[in-house]
Automatic annotation (TrEMBL):
It holds the Pfam family Lectin_C. It comes from the Eukaryota. This is C-type lectin domain-containing protein. Gene3D superfamilies: Mannose-Binding Protein A, subunit A. Coiled coil: none annotated. It comes from Macrostomum lignano. Residues 119-220 form the C-type lectin domain.
């Protein structure tokens, strides 16, 4: 079976594609999701490279998508396929269950879009699938933002540098945090260490730096309608989890 579906939302909307289930069965089977214009792929995977627990969403920045499904079953007639949930999102709005708010002087959306937990680097890449980044707040009080979004036990986009006994903090867009937001430390904050640490919010008023390799839910943010700017953070932090490595090809081409 080789099918291509053309999906179109009312302009200037967006389409959110959520993968509910993927059972391609045959090793050569594949699925791809790409934009209608320019041929840019949002994602593609095969039976060998899909993790059924990834809980992925993909948000297109245009109102048209192609979804191609290519599958063979063995023996013939043995069902194999995918289940996708398509949701409409306004270009000037937020995805369902995200909280709209003014953040750092701009209209933004803040959410915790998954119950799955990830290492810090993988959490950032998960947010990227939602057309967002891990939550940062350069000027506004991060506790207020977290409280409004009802977010707790989540990664935020803040890291602690090894220098100065981990007293220097940066957002993942490489901007130095103006104040330390009263971040506390749980073990390992020793002078002379060379390991970056990452910050999670146990609750809106309790920020804690821990090893980046621990697994926690991500708190994400995006401008209304989604972003095509994705922050990399430091190479040391990016290595703390590889959600997409060898699993999904993401080429953000618009």
């Amino acid at each position: 079976m080789d099918c291509t579906f053309s999906i179109e939302a009312n302009a200037p909307g967006r389409i959110i594609v959520r993968v509910i289930e993927s059972n391609l069965q045959y090793y050569a089977a594949s699925i791809s999701i790409r934009t209608y214009a320019l041929g840019g792929y949002l994602a593609s995977w095969s039976q060998l490279t899909y993790d059924k627990d990834r809980d992925d969403n993909f948000i297109g920045l245009t109102n048209k998508l192609y979804i191609n499904f290519n599958s063979r079953s063995s023996p013939p007639g043995n069902a194999a396929g995918v289940r996708l949930l398509l949701t409409f999102m306004r270009a000037n709005g937020c995805p369902p269950r995200w909280t709209p708010m003014t953040l750092d002087g701009r209209s933004q959306c803040v959410g915790v879009p998954t119950q799955n937990v990830y290492k810090f680097g993988a959490a950032q890449r998960y947010c990227n699938l939602q057309r967002s980044n891990l939550l940062i707040s350069e000027r506004d009080n991060i506790a207020t933002v977290l409280q409004r979004a009802n977010a707790a036990n989540v990664w935020i986009g803040m890291t602690a540098e090894p220098s100065g006994s981990y007293s220097t903090y940066r957002w993942i867009n490489n901007i130095r945090v103006a104040a330390n937001h009263n971040v506390s430390c749980t073990g390992g904050c020793r002078p002379g260490s060379t390991t970056h640490r990452c910050v999670y919010a146990r609750d809106p008023r309790s920020l804690i730096q821990i090893e980046c390799g621990q697994s926690i839910r991500p708190a994400c943010f995006m401008p209304v309608g989604g972003t095509d700017t994705f922050y990399a953070g430091s190479s040391a932090v990016r290595a703390s989890g590889a959600l997409l490595a060898g699993a999904v090809l993401l080429l953000w081409v618009f």
